[in-house]
Each structure stands twice: as C-alpha cells, then as structure tokens.
Amino acid sequence: MNQPSVKQYLIKGGTWAFAGKVASLIMGLVLSSFLARLLSPEDMGAYFLALNLATFFSIFSRMGVDNSLQRFVAEALGRGQPHVACTIIRKGLTLTLISALLVAVVVYLWVGPWVNQHLFTSERLGNSISFVSFWLILLTFQNVFTAVFQGAQQIQKAVIVNGLLTSSVATVFIAYYLMVKGQALLSEVLPWILIAGGCNILFALLALMNNKTISNKSVKKNKSVGYIGLISHSWPLLVNAIMMFTLSQSGLWVMGAFASDAEVASYGAAIRMVVLTSMTLVIVNIILPPLIVHLHADNQKERLEKVLRSTATIAAIPALAVLLCYIFLGGWILEIVFGEHYRAGATVLMITSLGQVANVLVGSCGYVLVMTGHNYLIMFISIASSVIAFTGSLLLVQSYGSTGVAIGYTFAMLVQQLAMLLFARYRCGVWTHILGMRYLVLIVRERFRLRSRNEYK
User: Fold this and answer.
1) Which end of the chain has less Cβ packing within 10 Å, N or C?
2) What is the pTM of this model?
C-alpha cells in the first residue's frame, strides 16, 4: 500500500466502520432495552446466560478459523491472487460447517444440560438449551463471514454482517411483540432472535457468492493453504479466543453459579453497557488487520507504528468521555436503558469500564501479534490472564458479590493488556499505545509548519 491508498483506506474504512458500529451498538442497546421491558428480570438473566453460552460454544465451532481466514485472505488479495483467497474461503467455510454441526449436537445432547444442571441450575436456561444449539451455529458463521469481509477490506459488508442486520431485524420483531403483548416469556422471544440471525447469514452468503473481488472460477488449480494448514494455524487462535472470552465474559458464569437470575440480569446489563467504552477501539480493529499484514510484510515498522499509535489516540478520547459518564451517572444510565431494577449494576459498570479504557489506551497490540503470526505467544498470555481472572473472581465473589467479580476480571485485563503491549514492541518492533502530549504537540507543530510553507509558496 502506498501513502495515498493507506489514507484513503483508513478514511473510507473508518467512516463505514464508525457509522456501522454506532448503528449496530444503538440497535443492540435498543434491543436489550426492549427485552428488559418485555421479559421479567429472571427471564432477562436467563437470556444473558443463554447468549453468553451460545457465544462461548461458537468459539469452539469456529476453531480459530475466522482469524486465520482474515489473515490469509488479506495476504492473498495483497499479492493479487483472488483465486487463492476464494479457495481458502471455501476450505474455511467447509471446516466451519462441519465443526458447527458437531458442536451444536454435543451441546444439545450432553454439554448444555450438564452445564445447566451442575453450574447454573436455572430452569429457564434449561428450557432454552435447544435454542442455544441453533444460536451458536448462527453466531459461528456471523463471525467467520465478518472475518472474510474484513480480510477483503470490504468494511461496509463486515459491519452489516457483524451484528447490525441481526440486531435491526430482531429489534423490529421484539418492538412489535412489546406493543402487542407487553409481556412475554423467554421461550416466546428466542425464536425471533434466531430468525433475525438466519436473515443475517443469508445476506452474508449472498454477498459472498456475488462478490467479484474474492471469486475467480476460471482458475481450477492453485497453491493455497490446505485444510491441515488452516487447522495448524488456527488452533492456537482457538485457545486464545477461549481464554479471551473467559477473561471478558465468564464473570457471568460466576454470577450464574453464586447469584440469583435477577442479580445475573443486573450484572449482564452492566456488561452490555461496557461495550460503549471500547467502541472506538472496536471500530479501529475492524479496519486495521489488513493494513497490519501489508505494512508488516513490507517491513515498514515506523509507518505501522505511526498508524497504530495515531488510531489508538483517536479511539481513546471518546472512551475516556464515556468512562466519566459511567463514573458519575452509571446508575441513572442503567435505569434509563433497562429499568429501575438494573440500577444495582452501577458499580460493576464503573469498575469494568476502567479495564476497557486500559484496553483502549494500549491500542491494537493483540491484533498486531495475531496478524504477524505470533499465535502461540498470545495464546500463553491469554491463558495466564484467564487463570488470574477466574481465580480472582472466585475468591472475591462470596465476600463482595458482583463487585468482587468485576474487580477480579478488571485486574486480569490490565495484566493481559500490559503483556501484549510489551511483547508487540519486543517481537514486532512497534509500540501501539496512545501518543503522549509531547508527540501530539510535535505533530501539530509539524502540520502547522508544512501548511505555512505551502501557503507561502
């Protein structure tokens, strides 16, 4: 990528990522708000657990293939080999389909009932295991299709598939249900969520089949990554994804094991709101991976670091603003969005938001390690952080409840982010954290000097 193309990609991709992610976030919060008013707090707690489990089991069915596809598709298209990208995508989707069906069957017959019986003991969740089995398949393909479109630098399709279409369709269904009935059971709501997810996967499949950038039917034989190569590259990423989920989301498991469904609902609502804190970094991470691959392959470390630190700085400003709102107005915000019962999650919201802000401040160090092939390293970092998080939350939950769980996971996230930041510098030769004030002043001065020189000429 030359300088103009990098800027053009960042501007165009950033605009699509920002608009799409903001719209997706708004629709997701509106959907959660409608559900909180349609369902009882107990049903809402079971809903959060069901979504959490479906997301967790979908990690196993993805097998890390989504991150591998993102990297290999970007590399193939960067070399001008769309036929190789097409072949890799077909192999990745084949592996995903087989694994998703196997995981869904195992969850439905054995794992799901066992987890509910021995860990959560929630009757509402037990009645929803069949929905969880279908839900995990939809979430699996949602993530895989999103990764393919990101690798192909088709950000507009990636943001649509990655939750925007699903939450929009589901919101329409739930809004109609709320106006007509006013109150519903979880078993009545989940089928509409699955239908919305099905519409999303159908759209993604049609968009991929009609995609001229990554399809080339005229080439029958080509050298590409095989099935064994995909699996070999993906399994450390699978372990990393499991550990990352454990680090960020399994606090809901601890709450489900030690608290009532209503308390789980308050904790889950707070966790849903935390995503606002790191939204800008999520947007940045949608557009950066292909750029990381290209600039690292060209050994342009200085340029890559400049891009990474600049985007981290831009992402940090709104994240800090959201954190201040949560510190002073967290309870009020939760009550407005979800209802009076959920005001109890204000402390959890504030503590977990501190961890997410730290995540934003260090930038995209995790993606730098993944996209440059340091799969095993990031896997070990994630394992260590997850052990810290899970152990800490178990030690604190009985004495401090949801606040203790939030403290345990926030501390572990700080450890993880610092480790990834330092290893990104040591292994890849780049810093990813936000720019300091001294660098910002120098950049502003340089921009002003160049503008003055151009005006003088």
Assistant:
1) C
2) 0.79
